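ERR on first pass: missing label on line 2. Operator R.T. fixed the label and resubmitted. Corrected input:
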Amino acid sequence: FHPLPWRQRVAGGYMAAKISKLEEQFQKDAPREKQKDGTSSCIFSGVAIYVNGYTDPSADELRRLMMLHGGQFHLYYTRSKTTHIIATNLPNRKIQDLKGEKVVRPEWITDSIKAGRQLSYVQYQLYTKQKGLNYSSVCARGKQDPSSIHEPSKPSLNHLQSDSIKPQPSHTQTLSTEVLKSTHANHKANFTERSNHQGSQDTLLTNGYVHPVNAALKPQDSFAELQSLISTASPAKQPGLHSMQKDLHPKPTSNPGTSAAPQKGNLHDQTRVRLNGSYHMTPNSSTLADSSNPPGRSAAGAEAGIISEFFSRSRLHHISTWRNEFSEYVNALQSRSRAAGGAVFSGQEKLKKLRANCSSGSLMAAPQVRQSCILHVDMDCFFVSVGVRHRPDLKGKPVAVTSNRGPGRVAQRPGANPQLEFQYYQRKQQQRPLFFLNGVDLDLAALSMAEIASCSYEARQAGVRNGMFFGRAKQLCPDLQSVPYDFQAYKEVALSMYETLASYTHNIEALSCDEALVDATNLLVELGVTSDDLARAIREDIKEKTGCTASVGMGSNILLARMATRKAKPNGQYFLRSEEVDDFIRGQPVSSLPGVGRSMSSKLTSLGVSTCGDLQQLSISRLQREFGPRTGQTLFRFCRGLDDRPVRSEKERKSVSAEMNYNIRFTQVEEAESFLTNLSMEVQKRMEGAGLRGRRITLKVMVRKPGAPVEPAKYGGHGICDNFARSVLLAQPTDSGQLIAAEAIKLFYAMKLDVKDMRGVGLQVQQLEGSYADPSGQGPSRGRSIKDLLLAKQPAHSPRKDPPAQGRSSVIRTEFFKSSLRLSDPMPGTSKGGLHHPHTPNHVRTYLNVSIEVPSPSQVDQSVLEALPVEIRKQVEQSWRHREEQPSTSSHLSTPPRTSSSPPPGPSLGTLVLQLQNQPGQPCTTGIILELPDVSQVDPEVFAALPRELQDELCSAYRNKGNAQAQVGKKNPFPQLKQPAVGKLKRRYKKRNASPAKKGPSPLKKLFPGNSPAKSSPSKTLPLPLKHPGLKVSLTDVPETLSKFNPRPVPTLAGAYEFSDIRTLLHEWVTSISEPMEEDILQVVKYCTELVEDKDLEKLYLVIKYMKRLMQQSSESVWSMAFDFILDNVQVVVQQTYGSTLKIT
Amino acid sequence: MATLTRQDLNFGQVVADILCEFLEVAIHLILYVREIYPSGIFQKRKKYNVPVQMSCHPELNQYIQDTLHCVKPLIQKNEAEKVVMVIMDKEHHPVERFVFEISQPPLLSISSETLLSHVEQLLRAMILKISVCDAVLDNNPPGCTFTLLVHTREAATRNMEKVQVIKDFPWIVADEQEVHMEEAKLIPLKTMTSDILKMQLYVEERTQKN
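pass 2 clean. output:
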């Protein structure tokens, strides 16, 4: 986000077009507004206002008033055209800029309307003679007007905070009264419409070019208004519709075009719109930092509003959320019908009547066999047909829905290099089939980059495709007509489509705004009609109610129904009978199967598969080998037309995310930080909305690809980018925006990016659970004791307080403590935590060290401590007390303050706790040197990723002692395993993991037995009988290479080394995803193989046993298969190395 | 803080001493745990700060001592790869093999402070593991005997002849029958990793013991 400089005159090109469009829109809306509200006049004719920042009444209200009373409203300030600037406060710099302009308080307008004439603006001037803001008057007004909720504050971000601290109820309350007051009488009926309108205007208005600081406040106002309006106006409305409307409101009815397309990347299907990120913000460190910035110019502050703005403006984002809305709608219908003791299905009634009318034989012969029948209802070219339904002149012509309305040409902006981007896309597309740019000579510079959301069948015949840039499409099809977005209409039509469907049955799965699945199995039996009749009735109904056509595909399962729809289109219906399924599906291209995208179809093509028939030739094992067990199985079934997915009215959510890749232009790190904070708040809102909490937080960043133009061809777009992602696992699920923000910021720093190159940021929270009462709240006193202890001892050591981040390391710590106890346990094998005990004391040492090093109470996860068995907790406390008595020993523990969730690099700082028990006070500083790896073995990337302090510490350690060894590899215990998106990181681990394998032939390849040490046969035999018990020597010929034990990297799994880390990682892997990726399985096998090579059978055994327990418990049979696969492979390796296989019980 | 190398301290000897001491304890303990000898001949002792069982049968003790005495030079030169304690049934077919797989990492540097206590802890863990290994093993048939094998690296045996102690207590090459076990199952017991020694103990167990 980069606000245009205040004075910058945006001449021509995009901005000019945008401004003129907005004006046009204003003119168009004015009469409608007047119509709605009888009290219109012309008192403001000749007046053109521009609202700068927060005002009361709000900018959109002012806009409305200007409409009603003959004035002009400028969304962008133009010195020549704008006559008055409306503002309640302005930063000094702007005041300087606006010398000589009429800057007027909004009261001027309201009072003028009250007076019925245009009053002199002089007494309403915001400031006089450029002396500065007229604070006194503003303040006075603030006191007089009880409805003003905003403290007339200094023009700074404090504004935001003081505001957000206020309890929300009173906030909305006052707002609602305010709005009610200002919107006179008589429009109760209009309320929802009105507020919708307001919302859209408001978001337009607060669009980042206007005034960054105050922009932050806007969306929340409008949202509060919306809420209050809706809640006051229509409490009696049906709840389903109600909530849907609420969410659909803030969508702008028409918006400057170019913002539409780049938000495509934003279509996460799991999102739910909740406006505004800044509203719930409580003062935390980052915003405090912001507020200390010079008032008004804080670019970081600008970010505060842009996220919510972005999501409230992004139209495609809205459409993408509709599926959820409609799902909710369906749910609401169902629950309502349950409550009412059975619903009335008007459509059903109609069908029944129909059947009764022509009750002759034919219909009675309808299939009484209860065979499942799924209907897939899909509107034909939804956006287009909605767009042209009131424009018969366009019917039958090539039509495209796009935001571009001109000839498809725009002036080029400086800094942009569209050619380069086109080339890039072109290159990219060459590897993929089916793209439209290939081999076409393009006049690149001037083509509109507005994407086509949808195009009619006529246009499709000309080669136009959805998603194409409009300029390009226009070249292909010069007759192409463009139709603007009409979101209101989309909503209406979609709603009536769903209403129509709901009039038949409530067994509906909403797929998108124009697509739904209906399970008609019961319905057909009940009505005794054929599916064709039902489909026909539905289609007629839809056509009648919406004026748009729909196609219906029918089949015995979802897959077949969807495939049948392809055949049914356009405007038709098709029932794929079970007897035709085989023939039909064989001819279908594989890409028509759900889940088969570009990459998979290209992979399939390389296997020589292009149709489902080809695919049927492949065995399930082959498919599973190529695509992983789950996907393989799915493919195997799909290509045979088998699909057992049920029609679900509600889908389980797997992640909650918020992502923004439009207009991201940071200049400073602080901006990025505050952006992340706000994005986190957005996520929090969504999670709250969904009633979920999550444990895994993933930060996704789009970074300008090196060499790509700084300014992308599309205005505010992200251009050519590299995608990076990192994730962290929290100890417990959270929905707190602050915690998420803290983690996200940490991840962000860990990525070491140049903020200037960031083009997109996304936050995703996975591993969701339903919210429940915080378990940590139940026993604070127990945890407190330790906390207090720590606090008392080490107040100085308090690095960044990020409790959740510490959570993970404390989990490790506690596991360690268990294991240390186990050491003195005479019967470890039989005790309950059997898996823990085989920790060698070496590991113990490491973790003890960690526990000592993290003395700050903020770093001890309370709930983890509480979760410990009593005796362990006691021991923890004991250790701490012990340590307190030995301050001298602790003094030489140089404490890297930001160890956070990674164990320190020199893991042997102390066998301190153990030594305290045995030989208290023994110095142990040298331990660190023992564990440092050879310098050459330190992965520079890993080293670079370490916090500064650790780097310094490592450097000094290396200076002191030349050679050493340590497991730098375990530095990053974050489980990366299951994240397909973390490509880069994973590759790095792979690289490292691969290194030991290069040193010798992989055990998998050692197929000849002679090479394995255990099997090597004695070369000489010198029988020499001995008395029992006999003593014998077995000679073995062991290759030289094996005997020389070279220091080798410790086997790691995705960077994890310690067993507890591995365990966490595996647990993570198995519990968080339903289908293991083949790649991951191979990684695990490889790790196990390395363990064998490393002669660490014990760990291998533990890992295997743990996996067995995990995977075989898993409900997914895929996991069992995965385990069997892993075990088989490991057994082969063990067999070859040791001549026998592991005993797995 | 003295940093010593393997050569400086004749490290092989230190390692060999430690290891042989451990092996002796371990062998006694295995004999007890696996009930090769009646429990009456064992006495409770304390080693590595944990209770262990030690035979008080002089001949048996002597045998074990002699054996380890011969193993020691091999360990010292880092020539012993595995020390295996084979438990055999009446037909002299192995039913269990306790394999101590030894490797000595090239020593980079070592500090005297952490050495002994640390290694001792590791060894203690291993002893504890042995004392409970019956939980993961099937019972042995009655009348079992035991034997000790050493897997040496390369041509270590050739040099063995020259060492006096070994001359006094001659070794023979093991029968294939004693080395090899059909349908063995492998049960890892414990792995220890220290600066001077990396050792893992696993048991190979015959699937059908009776």
